[in-house]
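Input (structure):
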């Protein structure tokens, strides 16, 4: 592999990782805000954080 190939591969990979992380972050925020509607119905904040935390790998897999 030449230096140019390595540079292109590293640039493309880092761009994909950054874009995926940004999408996961947005979806996690939207999921958290969606779950906050249930907060008034006795749904605890810890339960919301747990749900969002457990959903993050699924969200990452789907993006």
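Output (sequence):
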């Amino acid at each position: 592999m030449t230096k140019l190939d390595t540079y292109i591969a590293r640039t493309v990979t880092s761009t994909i990782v950054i874009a995926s992380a940004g999408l996961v972050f947005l979806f996690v925020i939207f999921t958290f805000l969606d779950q906050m509607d249930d907060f008034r119905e006795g749904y605890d904040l810890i339960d919301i954080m747990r749900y969002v935390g457990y959903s993050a790998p699924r969200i990452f897999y789907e993006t």
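Notes: Residues 30 and 52 are 10 Å apart (CA to CA). DSSP finds two helices and no strands in the chain.
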